[in-house]
Structures are given as C-alpha cells and as structure tokens.
Amino acid sequence: MSAGNHRLSQTLHPTILGADRQGIYGQSVDLVPLLTGRIPPARPQSVYVHTPFCFHKCHYCDFYSIVDTSDKQEEFVSRLSSELLNLQPFLAHRARTIFIGGGTPTLLSPHLWERFLPILAAVGLRADTEFSVEANPETVTRELLDILVAGGVNRLSIGAQSFNPRLLKTLERWHDPANVTRAVELARSAGVHNLSLDLIFAIPGQSLDDWHRDLEAALALRPTHLSCYALTFEPNTPLAVRLSTGQVRRLDEDLEAEMFLVTRERLRTAGYKAYEISNFAKPGYECHHNLAYWRNEDWLTAGPSASGHVAGLRWKNAPHLGRYLASQGLAPLSECDVPKPATRLAERLMMGLRLSEGIDSASVLADAELFGKAEVISATALECERAGHLHTENGRWTLSEASLLIADTIIGGLMRALDP
User: Based on C-alpha coordinates, what's the Rg of the chain?
Assistant: First the structure.
C-alpha cells in the first residue's frame, strides 16, 4: 500500500535454491541455519511484518494482497505469532523499528490485534521503538486505535493517495477523501501524533491544479511526514492493462516533472525536509524504518511475500497465503541469495543516493577496490561532478538538486561502472 511495504529493487538470484525464480517455492530451504551462520554481533534491529488482506485490490498496486476473507484472519494471526517467536533469537534484544504493512493491516479485526500485539511486544518492543502501522482511512476506528496505542504503536501511515474522487476512481482506490481527515483526527485523539500521508501524482487525467489542491489538502491536516510518489504502471496490474489498451494515458513527462518540482518547493516552504527523493518530514520525524532499507542495514521479516536482509543474505517469503498457513517455523521462501559484492555495492549506490545525506564515498571506493573497480567508479563520479550532477562534501556523494529529475540516469551510470 505504501513505501513502508518496501519497494526495493533487490536483485535476487536463485543460487541457494538452485532453481529458476518463476514459481519455485523453497519449502525445502531452511532459513534458520543460513541466518544462524550470518547473524552479526549487532543483531538486526528492524522488523517488517506483511499482512496480505485487502477489501479491494487497487488497480495500480503490485504488492502481494488478496481480497479479504475474514475466515482466514484468525488462522493468519496465529501463524504470524508463531513465526515472530521463531524470529526472536535472531533479533536484537529490542527492535529499533517495526513496520506493519500490506495489504491493509487495519482490516484485521480489533480482537486479533489484541492477541497479536502482545506477542510482538514480547519479541522486540522497547519504549523508544518507532512502531508504524499502515492504515486505510476507511478502516480506522477509535476502538482499533486504542488497541494499537495500548500495544505500542506510535506512528500511523495513512494511504490518502488523492483527495479528488475522480482521480481515486482512476486508481480504483475505494475510500471517501473525507475519511482521511476523520482518520487523522481520530489518531490524534487516541494519542498518535506521528502521522504520515501517502500521495500519488502523475495520475492519468490529473492537472497541475489538481496536484496543488491535493498538496494543500494534505498540508491542512498537519502530518509529520509525507510520501509523494509519481504513479508507476507496474507490470501485470489492471492499470497497466488499461494503459496498454488505450483506456488511460500517461501524463506528459514535462507535466510530471513540474509536479515533482512543485512538490519539493511547496513542502520545503511548509517546513518539510526532503530527506529522500520522494519522502518529506518535519525535523525529527523521518521514517527510521525506511531509512534502514535505504542505508542497507539489516532487517528481519515476517508474513507472506515479505523480503528480508541480514549481512548480505537476501530472501523473500513465498507470496502465497495457503503455503504460509500450512508451514511451520519461519515462512517458506520463494527467493534466497547472497549477491556478489559488485551487486551489493550497486544496490547501496541505488538506495543511498536517493537520500539527501548521500553515501560515504570512501566506503564505496574501498568496497569497489575489492573487485578492481575503485578507479573506474571514482572517474565516473568525477565526471558526474564536473557535469553538476553530483556533489562531494564531508566525504559523501550526494545528488545535486538540479539532477533529481534524472536521478535514475545518474545513479544508473554509477552502477554500470561496476559491471564486469
């Protein structure tokens, strides 16, 4: 539903599974010994939990979710609780961040949250844990919020996407924009003041004035965090099919670029820092969980389709509720790999250069030296600097403001410098 359900461009190859990546589920691959041999002294401090239920599949969404079958919710929560207990030996004594995404986590029945949250608290909750839950505005109730707050949740990520009913219809996003305001007010009254809103721009048929109005409607709610993403037509989604058949048309690239620039300027004047290309926060309210992804830190994961990362080991749980419910211990896998050093470094560049803090150039060059690429990547970075695309300050590489519109091109050039 949002960035919390980390859309990471991980290159996962089947070297451990020993099979192709299409349709091969790794029930025979036991993640426990792989983790046991790799857990670093500073154990993972972040946990992502994926809940697959939705009451409707939005046409732009390619995350694993299924239309809610409430008869499976109770079985799912029992299985998830078991999986989390099996993850506990690999987690730091207490987690620094927990993110529950989906799907629509707030679609789970309140009594199931009452059962599940104490398990999660016992596994890894501490007083200062950033504990985020994704929420659909239609499913936020005071009863649920009171249960979440009592269980330690202190951050809510609300999927607004747009405040324009016409544009929501284009996305097949079923909620009343007025319920975004209601959800925010309910959250604050329940004691949740760290509130993030998700917005999408470059929706077919959207004008610049439409986007201005969406930004102003979001700012009027005074969130601490905003995620503003350009719409992507993900393969095999209904929206991508509508695009291919001419039912919808992409927005003009120049208009999309203008929306991007307007977003950065308007949120800057409103006191939000662009700490990542598409994410904006009031001072001190950056999403620390997503920062763990962008900084290439370690995290554990639970639930079907969720991806994890520990000390270079990458894996993805099988995106299949039935297989998940039938399994025991940790979730069955669909992908598992230890990427080569060049791949890992390329991913660090891809993620780290999206951040306003950039990436430590000395560590990049030291890692590149291990496979003989330090000189070529240094030369590529220098070329980018001379072109005004990259800055070096305090030993860190950062993208220049002027290059953000072509960030993928700049980052891609640095990544290609690592090719054999």
Answer: 21
| Alpha-carbon span 146 to 190, nearest angstrom | 6
Helices (H) and strands (E) in the chain, counts: 15, 17
Contacts of 269 (CB under 8 A, 6+ apart): none
The CA distances from residue 339 to 10, 31, 345, in Å, are: 9, 16, 10
Amino acid residing at 75: E
| CA dihedral angle for residue 70, residue 75, residue 81, residue 82, rounded to 10 degrees | -160
Strand bridging mode 359-360 / 313-317: unpaired
- Sheet containing strand 313-317, edge to edge, reads 307-310, 313-317, 333-337
Token couple for 361: 């150039």
The sign of the torsion formed by the CA atoms of 133, 138, 139, 143 equals: positive
Q: Is residue 10 part of a domain?
A: no
Domain identity same for 226 and 283: yes
- Tens of pLDDT, residue by residue over 308-335, are 999 999 999 999 999 999 999 999 999 9
- Report the alpha-carbon distance of residue 304 to residue 298 in Å, rounded: 19
At residue 67, the pLDDT reads 75
The pTM is what? 0.90
Q: Looking at the 3D structure of the chain, how many domains does it have?
A: 2
Kindly state whether residues 278 and 223 are assigned to the same domain. yes
For 22-111, list the strands marked E by DSSP: 46-51, 53-54, 66-67, 97-102
Structural domain boundaries enclosing 206: 31-337
Looking at residue 91, which CATH number applies to its domain?
A: 3.80.30.20
Positions of E strands within 36-193: 46-51, 53-54, 66-67, 97-102, 130-135, 155-161
Beta bridge partners of 391: 398
Residue 23 lies in a domain: no
Whether residue 14 lies inside any domain: the answer is: no
Residue 388 in contact with residue 402, Cβ under 8 Å? yes
